[in-house]
Amino acid sequence: MDNLKVEANDVITEYRAKNSQLEFDNTVLRLQVKKLQNKINELTADKKNAKKENK
């Protein structure tokens, strides 16, 4: 029975480590998406302003 507890603890520890890594990766991806969205908004704003100036 103690052997099962050790194996279960190993599985739980591995799960927590992988889950933590996934949460970190997810946070990094969210920040990258936010940065890209800001850049896209910046570029499209520049185009909109250029069109207004040409009119």
Automatic annotation (TrEMBL):
Superkingdom to which the source organism belongs: Bacteria
Keyword tags: Coiled coil
Stretches assigned to coiled coil: 26-53
Protein known as: Transposase
